[in-house]
Amino acid sequence: MPADAISLRARQIHFSNIVIDTHADTPQRFLFDQFDMGHLDSEGCVDIPRLRAGGVTAIAFALWVPVDITGAAATARAFGLLNGVEEQIRRHPDDVILARTAQQVREALDQDKIAILLGVEGGHAIHNDLQVLREFAARGVRYMTLTHNAATDWADSSNAGARHNGLTGFGREVVLEMNRLGMIVDISHVSDQTFRDVLETSSAPVIASHSCCRAICNVPRNLSDELIRALAARGGVLHITFHAAFLSQEYAVAYKALSAENTLREQAANDKFGLNEAQKLIEGQRMSDEWIRAGKLPRVGWEKIIEHIDHAVRLVGADHVGLGSDFDGAFMPEGLEDAAQFPRITDGLLGLGYAETDIAKILGGNTLRVMSESEKVRGF
Ligand SMILES: [Zn+2]
Predict the structure, then answer these.
(1) Ordered structural domains, the chain, with CATH
(2) Is the model's pTM score more than 0.90?
């Protein structure tokens, strides 16, 4: 479906509502490639022209720290990425603005600017120090993904064996301090037990900033129906992500079967690009595209995103589902290769007969609600 095939009604709805993407890894590009988001780029997924074409009101930039970076270096990496985002905001004051609250997202829209939100991805970035957490909050970070693909010293990850059986006592302190600071707890990447411990501990609703449904694609990074229900019961929001290996079971299985080849590819990419995570990701997407052309991986279409949204909505209603692309951090499906393609989501939901009020909640209304509720806990 070419972009111009999107119905007029879908465009009208899409461009008259708040659209929030809760997870993009574009800061890697700022830090490693000195990428400037002001021009339409031929690589990657996100820049100002494509955010505008996609009708994006707000985008959360993830300050992601790989798990092999630990200690003070992990904190330094997160701040390095944050500096890169701040530089972009300084360079493009007419187009983007840092938003710390739900109200500031609305104000950005009124000023015809794109709101930039900040999230730390990987709790090891705080180096077991609540003071670092407070510094992130002071710089405008509104959520933190408690783990990445390995346990921290205080929380287990979905992609590694149990080290603590969930959250430790200090892990609970981190959650409570996040509540106090008005920082939303992101349970994408954590283990099921960590998730349950977070729900038991947090006084504010929590989010999954970029996860899908296990009922459709059974991988540890996705949420079981039971967990989606528990998240919703506490007022939280599952932001459906666009990563092909979380959308499609067939893709996930085929990708796993390529693990020997993939290890070689990753080694070659490490040799070629060293620490440059942005180039490694771009190379990974290129490889995925090549393997799809060679028939080694199945094609995954953007419609799969709609399937996951609809599954979650049928389970818990339209009040608990949102969007978190993982642009510039994962492998995108056909038809949603970049931020300019966002109106397709609205078109797909309209096609399923969704009411505009429900579409508005999914596009961004639910995310704003969770932001407001966490601000109430803090008393912004
Ligand atoms: Zn992630």
Answers:
(1) 3-249+304-378 (3.20.20.140)
(2) yes
